Amino acid sequence: MTTVTSPLTGRVVGLANVPDPVFSGAMVGPGTAVDPVREPTEALAPVDGIVVSMHPHAFVVVDDEGHGVLTHLGIDTVQLNGEGFELLVNKGDKVVRGQAVIKWNPAAVEAAGKSPISPIVALEATADSLGSVREDGEVQAGGELFSWS
């Protein structure tokens, strides 16, 4: 069983409320989303594992059980070409839950006309393999979002 924790402090809004049909339709996978606080912050690793994909706006960490967790910082943020994002780790690095992975500013993303709402998705999972999925309420970075069996 993998516990997936929030990479961000903010308000849990659930995948259905992500302003992108690929995420809201769970086409990438099941999970939830966080509307982050509007201040410079660090996105944290949601699980212990290896960083297998690293972009300024998104990263994937695969844990020892082979579960890949995608953290996507905002919607359409790839269009910012990395501006306002600072990578703190590299692809291939081993990370521990709660370790800072990317520095970014959700307020700057919003000012650039993009949504800072950030999906946290269980890749190659089925909805019934997730438990205790948070869909609402305030969350601190490191707070539990869902479990994955």
From TrEMBL:
<feature type="domain" description="PTS EIIA type-1">
    <location>
        <begin position="20"/>
        <end position="124"/>
    </location>
</feature>
<dbReference type="GO" id="GO:0009401">
    <property type="term" value="P:phosphoenolpyruvate-dependent sugar phosphotransferase system"/>
</dbReference>
<keyword id="KW-0598">Phosphotransferase system</keyword>
<keyword id="KW-0762">Sugar transport</keyword>
<dbReference type="GO" id="GO:0016301">
    <property type="term" value="F:kinase activity"/>
</dbReference>
<keyword id="KW-0808">Transferase</keyword>
<keyword id="KW-0813">Transport</keyword>
<dbReference type="Pfam" id="PF00358">
    <property type="entry name" value="PTS_EIIA_1"/>
</dbReference>
<dbReference type="GO" id="GO:0005737">
    <property type="term" value="C:cytoplasm"/>
</dbReference>
<dbReference type="InterPro" id="IPR011055">
    <property type="entry name" value="Dup_hybrid_motif"/>
</dbReference>
<protein>
    <submittedName>
        <fullName>PTS glucose transporter subunit IIA</fullName>
    </submittedName>
</protein>
<keyword id="KW-0418">Kinase</keyword>
<dbReference type="InterPro" id="IPR050890">
    <property type="entry name" value="PTS_EIIA_component"/>
</dbReference>
<dbReference type="InterPro" id="IPR001127">
    <property type="entry name" value="PTS_EIIA_1_perm"/>
</dbReference>
